[in-house]
Amino acid sequence: MRDNILRNITQKADELANEYNRTRDPGIRDQWYKLIRMVSQVPSVSEEARLPSRKKTLGKARTFRSD
Question: How would residue 25 be classed by pLDDT, with cut points 50, 70 and 90?
Answer without folding.
Answer: very high
